[in-house]
Write a structure and sequence with these properties.
It contains 7 helices and 10 strands. By secondary structure, the chain is an alpha/beta fold.
Amino acid sequence: ALIEIKKIIEATPNLQQNFEEVVVVYVNELFTVVPQALFDEKHLTDYLKFNTKILKTDFIVYDELEALELVNIYVPYANINNFFFDHFGTFTYFHSQSILLNNTLALASTQTAEVFVHVRPNTLSVIAYQEKKLLLSNQFNFDTPQDFVYYILFCYEQLQLNPEIHPLVLSGAITKEDANYEYIYQYVREVRLVPPETTTPEELKNTILNYPLSL
């Protein structure tokens, strides 16, 4: 990923300048969510090792999600952080799941359970709420529309939700003409698409660096 980032920056004149603010968003499966009431900063490794494979040398950080009373613990990439600091100076970074959790909470119903799926190339993030109470936060890799549908229906089944009753809200790299949309529409009665700006936080709108690159 670092090699790709360097190539993009070197090939983009607009990135050869100073910025008032730089925000880096990491997209990876190296995360877990913990209730604030149970969170202890001394045990970051313990929380994460039960959900994902980590190395002893991994740098572990967290985002606080005040509205949900949760903490998202994750692994950023130290080499990428070092590069951005050397190139741009001070910057802010988050995990993509933290941003999605905050933004989907604002969209979640107070009346029923809903499943939110944010789509990226070959990756889908699944977040489910029951009357704005978080039920699930996970991420899956997929290759085909069949994979896409399998993971979504698997989440419905595990949460004992009914595809005939509980809505599915899609965002990200998906349209009604997309094969993934057409396939899932056969299995879930109510499927809604939300525009990109709905799930994009204000601080990331109208940014220069907006490539489909997962950090």
